[in-house]
């Protein structure tokens, strides 16, 4: 599975399966997911207003234009702003996959 990086986050996806991107923090623990809608596959905004939706941001998926929606399972401040790379093994043992659902709306999390 090829990966590409965001600040403090590694993204893993299968290039031939443009549906889901797994997000891992700097310590290798699952942090969230991104759903993918390839621009060429959504027929503009015929079925959903991707281009004007605050949930989806324009990005790319292995070179193809895409709309991505981002969800974290832990507070994004822990994953994105952490100088130590994210959660510890003790955090993961206590929290498992996560303890909430933090949705990215435009450039903020709710």
Description:
Helices cover 11% and strands 39% of the residues. With 110 residues, the chain is mainly beta. The protein has one domain (3-109). Strands 1, 2, 3, 4, 5, 6, 7 and 8 form an eight-stranded antiparallel β-sheet that branches. The longest helix has 7 residues, at 89-95.
3D shape: elongated
Low-confidence stretches: 1-5
| Helix-strand pattern | EEEEEEHHEE
DSSP helix fraction = 10-25%
Largest sheet: 8 strands, antiparallel
Primary descriptors:
elongated; 2 helices; mainly beta
Short description:
The chain is mainly beta and 110 residues long. It contains two helices and eight strands; from the N terminus they run E-E-E-E-E-E-H-H-E-E.
Write the layout of secondary structure elements.
Layout: E1 3-6, E2 9-12, E3 20-25, E4 30-38, E5 57-61, E6 64-72, H1 76-80, H2 89-95, E7 102-105, E8 108-109
Antiparallel strand pairs: 1-2, 2-3, 3-4, 4-6, 5-6, 6-7, 7-8
